[in-house]
């Protein structure tokens, strides 16, 4: 489950930041998670609940805001906002579902904190001209937006 290692890294970082600021508790952690990092929120929440026990974040809430991917087309220069599940539905209709399943598998095996641009093979087609010569310029990253103490 890649959610656990993601939340673990985020959580360590938050504890570090709190310590540097002499905070005695954390009450809320706000994250922005790119849709293409394929984080399942319920697993992330479960991991968080396990990790926070007995720490200064014992009563903290984890708030996750999902952000869309931004796909740049190298053929027609179009930029489109896309969501993984919608692209997957479209791909199923076009008979490209296997590529999506492979992407999910690849992503699940990687660590996501650095918004690795190589995370999963790029399989996404341009919304305008259907070219496969595209780059996902946003949507794989995980950012700590703020930390409430
Ligand atoms: Zn295009």
Write a concise synopsis of the structure shown.
The chain has 149 residues and is α+β, with helices and mostly antiparallel strands.
Shape: elongated
User: Uncertain spans, ≥5 residues at pLDDT below 50?
Assistant: none
Q: Please count the helical segments.
A: 4
Backbone CA Rg? 17 Å
Number of domains as seen in the coordinates: 1
Q: Within the largest sheet, what's the order of strands?
A: 2-1-6
Percent helix? 25-40%
What is the C-level CATH assignment? Alpha Beta
Q: Kindly, what is the distance between the CA atoms of the first and last residues, rounded to a whole number of angstroms?
A: 29 Å
Q: What does this molecule look like?
A:
The protein has 149 residues and is of the alpha+beta class. It has a single domain (2-148), classed as hypothetical protein PF0899 fold. The protein is built from four helices and six strands; from the N terminus they run αβαβββααββ. It has helices spanning 2-20, 41-52, 84-93, 97-108; strands at residues 28-34, 61-67, 69-73, 79-82, 134-138, 142-148. A three-stranded mixed beta sheet has the order 2-1-6, covered by helices on one side. A three-stranded antiparallel beta sheet has the order 4-3-5. β3 (69-73) and β4 (79-82) form a beta hairpin. The longest helix has 19 residues, at 2-20. The model has no long low-confidence stretch (mean pLDDT 91). Bound molecules: zinc ion. Zinc ion is lined by residues 73, 75-76, 78, 126, 128-129, 131.
């Amino acid at each position: 489950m890649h959610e656990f290692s993601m939340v673990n890294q985020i959580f360590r970082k938050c504890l570090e930041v709190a310590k540097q600021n002499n905070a005695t508790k954390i009450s809320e952690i706000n994250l922005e998670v790119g849709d293409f990092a394929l984080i399942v929120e319920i697993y992330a929440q479960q991991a968080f609940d396990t990790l926070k026990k007995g720490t200064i974040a014992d009563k903290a809430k984890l708030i996750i805001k999902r952000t869309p991917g931004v796909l740049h087309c190298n053929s027609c220069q179009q930029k489109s906002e896309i969501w993984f599940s919608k692209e997957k539905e479209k791909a199923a209709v076009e008979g490209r579902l296997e590529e999506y399943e492979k992407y999910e598998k690849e992503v699940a095996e990687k660590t996501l904190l650095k918004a690795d641009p190589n995370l999963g093979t790029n399989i996404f087609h341009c919304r305008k001209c259907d070219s496969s010569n595209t780059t996902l310029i946003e949507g794989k990253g995980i950012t700590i937006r703020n930390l409430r103490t």
